Amino acid sequence: MQALLGTETSASINLVAQLIIIIGLWVGFYFARTGQIPKHRNTQTILVLANLLFIALFMATSFYNYVVSGATTTGTVATLMMVHGFLGLVAQLSGIYLILRMRTQFIPQRFRVRNFKLMMRATLGLWTVIVLLGLGIYYERFLTPSSAVAEVQLDQFKRAGQDLVIHASETQEALQRGNLQTAQRHSEHLVNLIEGNRGGNYGDLDRHGTVEDPGDGTGLFIYLKRFTSGSKQLQPRAKQLEESLKQINRDALAIAAAKDLAAASAPAQRIVELALDANNEGVVPIEKSVRDTGVPSVAAQAPSAVSGDITITIERFRNTPMLVRLSKGTTVMWVNKESPRHTVTSDDGIFHSGSMVKEDTFSFTFNQVGTFKYYCRFHGDKGGVDMAGTVIVE
Ligand SMILES: [Cu+2]
């Protein structure tokens, strides 16, 4: 089922089913308490048998993939899975025993538990604990909050939007006062803020000796791409913001290069308006939307593009760095630094490492531009689920 529906979908279906089953079992308990014995018997029988089906279809394969194939016995998820699996087996067997005992004469006299009611209650209690453990596994694998790194970068993006307005205003005000030098300094701030230290114009534009950048060096262009490239919904707004930023950048460059006040005044005319628009209609709503939909942990952790071949370390069920940007022709080498087995498997079937034990490496050369997602067959899934990563080739 997992192979058919994907790891996360399977887990979600199973999660819902398990919640229905446990609620049903408690309803069945209520039937017993209120003397509705036939109802009680039928409810519990159906639910215990249904659970057997879910074990076979979902939980056993999930356990097998993660713990057995992945040789994984360490880490929170594996520990929870093993405890959950063991207790689950006990509860399931106990449930089957209770059904046989309730409905048939199959159980020989000497195997008949004397305190039957107590055993029923103990099984229900245990079952409840197991469902909670299952929730824990689901949370750990699919819902763990995205990293603090992403939060910090989102804050930087927001601040850069505010800085844009501040330095555009400073530029215009300086020109109105007739101070070209100050205007040019603030134009430098604008360009550096927008392009970032990888931009072609980044630097000491007013030629006064130091490079001044009010931002963190990443640049709004990069942040914009980083936060919106994965979202179709944000594309129109992102496109619009990009255009505004380009215009501000052109104007700021013209001001920085102006020989006199007259030459600087034309490009300065709309710069504040554009900056306000870029911030209020672009950065602010995008930042809010990204935060509301959950910070995209993969995209936001993107480092700057690397040059030269690189190594990605597989450790603690993570590919580090999880996202790399590189240029065409770069070779990436993955190295497994821990005892659980892992794979590096392309979402599109372009590459597959096979099962990697500790210290195994796998290399692939990216000769085509594009975004290449990959995952671990044992601990992740296509589409960036759980243990996965992305390579962006530019
Ligand atoms: Cu793995």
Notable characteristics:
394 residues; alpha/beta; Four Helix Bundle (Hemerythrin (Met), subunit A); Immunoglobulin-like; 3 domains; four-stranded mixed β-sheet; 8 strands; 59% helix; 12% strand; elongated; binds copper (II) ion
Question: Explain this structure to me?
Answer:
It is a single chain. The protein is an alpha/beta fold and 394 residues long. It has three domains: 2-143, Up-down Bundle (Four Helix Bundle (Hemerythrin (Met), subunit A)); 148-297; 301-393, Immunoglobulin-like. It has helices spanning 2-5, 7-33, 37-69, 76-103, 116-143, 148-176, 180-195, 220-228, 235-257, 261-268, 271-292, 297-300, and strands spanning 310-315, 318-320, 323-326, 330-336, 345-346, 361-366, 370-381, 385-393. It has a four-stranded mixed beta sheet with strand order 2-1-4-6, with no helix packed on it. Strands 3-8-7-5 form a four-stranded mixed beta sheet. A hairpin with a 3-residue loop joins strand 7 (370-381) and strand 8 (385-393). The chain starts with a helix and ends with a strand. 36% of the residues are buried. The chain binds copper (II) ion. Residues 70, 342, 376, 378-379, 387 line the site of copper (II) ion (CU).
